[in-house]
Amino acid sequence: MGVQDILINWAPQETRVAIVENGAVQELHIERALERGQVGNVYLGKVVRVLPGMQSAFVDIGLERAAFLHVADLISAAGPHRGDAPLPPIERQVFEGQTLTVQVIKDAIGTKGARLSTQVSIAGRMLVFLPHDNHIGISQKIGSHELREQLRARVQALASASSEDPANSGGFILRTNAEEASDTELADDIAYLRKTWKLIRERANTRPPGTLLHQDLSLAERVLRDLVNEATYSIRIDSRLQFDQLRAFGDIYMPRAVGKLELYKGERPIFDLFGIEEEIVRALSRRVDLKSGGYLVIDQTEALTTIDVNTGGFVGARNFDDTIFKTNLEAAGALARQLRLRNLGGIIVADFIDMTREDHQQAVLAELRKQLARDRTRTTVSGFTQLGLVEMTRKRTRESLAHMLCQPCPTCEGKGQVKTARSVCYDILREILREARQFAPKEFRVVAHASVVEMLLDEESVHLAGLSEFIGKPISLSAEPGMNPEQYDIVLL
Question: The pTM is what?
Fold first, then answer.
């Protein structure tokens, strides 16, 4: 991996982060203030009502509506509930006026308040900390039994060695990206999580009910926790306020990353430095041009993402086989970058240009795997299928860039195309004939898009006149600027 720079563009409504490697943007992360929600937040709540019939309680956590706590999400004095043992009734566990440390597990929706749990969990870079549980769990995605047992033993040893009270040191769940973590990285994560929990407990003892004790990290803080590594050269941020907050956060939790923090004071906006605004526009288009003259076409559907490779105008090599091979090699690198940049997840099918030589196919696959190795998100690549397609999967970690920044077009409703003006004309002529058989108005008035009205007056005027004569009623036309090309109304006058 080459040198990595991280640029953070902060505004009160939105934080944007670009990861630049060797001068090219590789990843974009965006977080909007209004879309953050409360899931993961820890509050000091006050029980306002216990409902034995529903085995639930309403808890005031300082939000507009009281939040909802079900008996199954309560941690009893005996510890976490396990197995088929009956749950003690809620009225024996909580009472009105009691204060509880609770975590939001589901955001408020409509008239329903947020859903709570007293079983707090705090996410770190490699681990999730369970303060009320001594169990060590492992992500199902971590493969072999042997590796799972090794990781469990390492975390157990590191957690016990760093705990003030080994008998009550809390439990951990190893996330997928802990698979290749070093002992130092795991120890750093354990220290960060324990510090966070200590701070939550201290606040719970000193603050009034309704206080937010811990908020899930902001995007800028997650950059320090999750994205900084040995290859990171600098982290530049364009807000003095956020720079000071990040430095304070880093001093406590991420001292190794603080030295790389820089406040950007340039005249030009920080995202203009590396042409990132233009890169965002390009990352939302279907077509990606390659330097050689070839290009990719990327289509996202519900089930999968398809990427088609084309030679375009590239004729630089000595023969056709070399042209195809060089285009596919370049496309493999561009494809890996686009997956990261657009954050495409799920099933991905790449249609490289057909190669007759086996060694060319293997070289393209090797290049694709090499480029994907730089991606932190887990990706698996199958070889070429009988149809010459490369199938791969990439773990879904968050919304893709297009889903975050865009919505389906209101005109085509996501189809990517609309009917031609001629097709709409014929729909209108059929509809008038249908209505003339049911109703007997003095006149039919067609209200439609200007391009449709123009075609009815010009190329389709003979058919319009013939229909008017056949039904014995005049047909008038009116262009409506606000209508989309497929919309029309037939008014009976």
Answer: 0.74
